[in-house]
């Protein structure tokens, strides 16, 4: 009798086991508890709470989703559960994870109750079904709201909605107003709508106004529809509600739309309201359309309203399309209507009509465009150069395009170059488009590089695309990976293991 009971017990256990589901992590769950099982997607929902091991410990769950490597991606609790996140302890209904190495981290928590979170713009009052996401360093990068939420920001109480996203490396983030809000700014108390941009110090950077309003700007009160601010608070941009005559770096101009203010309060970028006449040391020009001061190269760009004859280091010329000026007022670039002869230490070149030419503040040629290849003697030997040629202020070659493959010596090894090649002012190769792969000596050892190679002022390799797999400091990198090195031979990008 005892033997029969034992046999029946074993048979019963086998039946239960055969009628159970084995989850990707090896856990066995009875079929009667599984509501839905999408095995191909590795996700399971349960009709009754199931106690499972999770990165947060043993939890009663109603849903679980696994990654391809059988680690847990998402869990939903059968009832709300207290969870410690990088933003503090929250009552959560769902948690998502990311895995770095063998360790899991919380990447997202869906709230099951109220939670107040500090963001740079102030205190945000979240509610049930809102979610908070975190990056791999535990920093909040996304808040998604399922309805209108209250944000206490300085002296203002704002109603916001949607998502607040902070991208890695970005010092800005946006909030979306659920309803118009009056906010105190350096330009006055103004009523804003839609998106407002802040920096990580919680200072407003830009916003759109509900309707045209008077705002205090570097040029007095102007009627505007939008504003941007410097981090310290002053107005940097505004959108004019109607054309205004304003002071620019080049005199008074009638402007429309967006305008940008320089440090001295004058406009350095904007859009002309019709043709405007400006006087320069090289002549008078009628400009139209947009103009812009480019801080990356420290010169301005203008669109010409008509072809104009001006004085240049190459004589009186008719220019077309556009031109630019240096901060001191001298010409930075122009587009000649016809061919222009350019004398250099490498001989005489012909700049093609309709192609831009650049000048240094002292009038020496900075760059020009030729239509036919020309062979010149350089510090890297004879090169057949074409298209745009750049010169340093002392007249030495800065960069050019190479028509036919040529071998150029570098500190790291020989380079077979075709396409763009750049040189440092000391004559060493700075950048090269490679026709063939090159085996180069680097601070990380010998590397086979293809496509292109970049070097520092000393001629040492700092960046390129691997032509074959390489192991650097014990880390393996695939062929095709773009590798960046510092002067110690350490890989700065991609991060080791990526």
Short summary:
With 498 residues, this protein is mainly β. Among the domains are: 22-113, no CATH class; 243-338, no CATH class.
- Roughly what percent helix? under 10%
Q: What low-confidence regions span 5 or more consecutive residues with pLDDT below 50?
A: 6-18
| Biggest β-sheet description | 29 strands, antiparallel
Category from helices, strands and their pairing: mainly beta
Strand content: over 45%
Strand segment count: 46
Number of helices: 1
- Arithmetic mean of pLDDT: 91
Coarse morphology: flat
Textual characterization of the structure:
With 498 residues, the protein is mainly beta. The protein contains one helix and 46 strands. Among the domains are: 22-113, no CATH class; 243-338, no CATH class. The strands form six sheets. It has a 29-stranded antiparallel beta sheet that branches. The protein has a nine-stranded antiparallel beta sheet with strand order 3-4-5-6-7-8-11-12-15, with no helix packed on it. Strands 1-2 form a two-stranded antiparallel sheet. Strand 11 and strand 12 form a beta hairpin. The radius of gyration is 33 Å and the shape is flat. The two termini are 64 Å apart.
Topology:
Elements: H1 2-18, E1 20-22, E2 28-30, E3 34-38, E4 43-54, E5 57-66, E6 72-85, E7 88-100, E8 103-111, E9 115-119, E10 122-126, E11 131-134, E12 140-144, E13 149-153, E14 156-161, E15 163-165, E16 172-177, E17 181-185, E18 188-199, E19 204-217, E20 220-229, E21 235-240, E22 244-248, E23 251-255, E24 258-261, E25 267-271, E26 276-280, E27 283-294, E28 299-304, E29 308-312, E30 315-325, E31 331-336, E32 340-344, E33 347-351, E34 357-359, E35 365-378, E36 381-391, E37 397-410, E38 413-423, E39 429-434, E40 438-442, E41 445-455, E42 461-466, E43 470-472, E44 475-477, E45 482-485, E46 491-493
Antiparallel strand pairs: 1-2, 3-4, 4-5, 5-6, 6-7, 7-8, 8-11, 9-10, 10-13, 11-12, 12-15, 13-14, 14-16, 16-18, 17-18, 18-19, 19-20, 20-21, 21-24, 22-23, 24-25, 25-27, 26-27, 27-28, 28-30, 29-30, 30-31, 31-34, 32-33, 34-35, 35-36, 36-37, 37-38, 38-39, 39-41, 40-41, 41-42, 42-45, 43-44, 45-46
């Amino acid at each position: 009798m005892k033997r029969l009971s034992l046999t029946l017990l074993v048979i019963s256990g086998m039946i239960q086991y055969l009628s159970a589901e084995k989850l990707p992590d090896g856990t066995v769950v009875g079929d009667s508890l599984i509501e839905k099982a999408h095995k191909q997607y590795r996700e399971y929902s349960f009709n009754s709470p199931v106690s499972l091991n999770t990165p947060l410990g043993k939890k009663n769950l109603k849903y679980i989703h696994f990654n391809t490597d059988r680690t847990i991606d998402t869990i939903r609790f059968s009832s709300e559960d207290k969870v410690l996140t990088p933003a503090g302890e929250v009552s959560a209904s769902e948690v998502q994870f990311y895995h770095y190495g063998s360790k899991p981290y919380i990447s997202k928590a869906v709230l099951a109750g109220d939670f107040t979170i500090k963001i740079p713009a102030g205190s945000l009052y979240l509610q049930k079904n809102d979610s908070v996401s975190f990056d791999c360093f535990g920093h909040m990068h996304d808040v998604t709201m399922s309805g209108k939420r209250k944000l206490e920001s300085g002296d203002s109480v704002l109603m916001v909605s949607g998502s607040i996203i902070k991208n890695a490396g970005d010092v800005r983030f946006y909030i979306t107003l659920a309803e118009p809000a009056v906010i105190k700014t350096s330009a006055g108390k103004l009523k804003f709508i839609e998106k407002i941009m802040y920096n990580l110090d919680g200072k407003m950077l830009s916003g759109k106004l509900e309707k045209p309003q008077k705002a205090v700007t570097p040029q007095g009160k102007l009627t505007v529809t939008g504003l941007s601010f410097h981090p310290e608070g002053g107005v940097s941009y505004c959108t004019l509600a109607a054309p205004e005559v304003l002071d620019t770096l080049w005199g008074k101009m009638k402007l429309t739309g967006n305008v940008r203010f320089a440090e001295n309060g004058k406009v350095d970028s904007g859009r002309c309201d019709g043709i405007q006449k400006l006087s320069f040391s090289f002549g008078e020009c009628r400009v139209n359309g947009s103009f812009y001061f480019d801080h990356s190269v420290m010169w301005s760009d203008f669109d010409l309203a008509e072809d104009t004859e001006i004085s240049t280091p190459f004589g009186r010329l008719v220019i077309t399309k556009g031109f630019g000026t240096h901060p001191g007022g001298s010409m930075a670039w122009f587009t000649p209507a016809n061919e222009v002869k350019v004398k250099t230490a490498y001989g005489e070149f012909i700049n093609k009509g309709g192609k831009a030419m650049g000048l240094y503040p002292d009038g020496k040629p900075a760059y020009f465009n030729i239509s036919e290849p020309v062979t010149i003697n350089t510090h890297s030997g004879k090169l057949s150069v074409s298209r745009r040629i750049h010169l340093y202020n002392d007249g030495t070659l800065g960069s050019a395009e190479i028509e036919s493959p040529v071998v150029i010596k570098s500190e790291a090894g020989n380079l077979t170059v075709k396409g763009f090649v750049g040189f440092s002012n000391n004559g060493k190769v700075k950048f090269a488009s490679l026709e063939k792969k090159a085996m180069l000596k680097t601070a990380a050892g010998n590397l086979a590089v293809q496509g292109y190679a970049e070097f520092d002022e000393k001629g040492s390799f700092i960046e390129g695309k691997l032509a074959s797999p390489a192991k650097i400091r014990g880390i393996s990198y695939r062929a095709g990976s773009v590798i960046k090195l510092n002067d110690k031979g350490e890989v700065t990008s991609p991060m080791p293991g990526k």
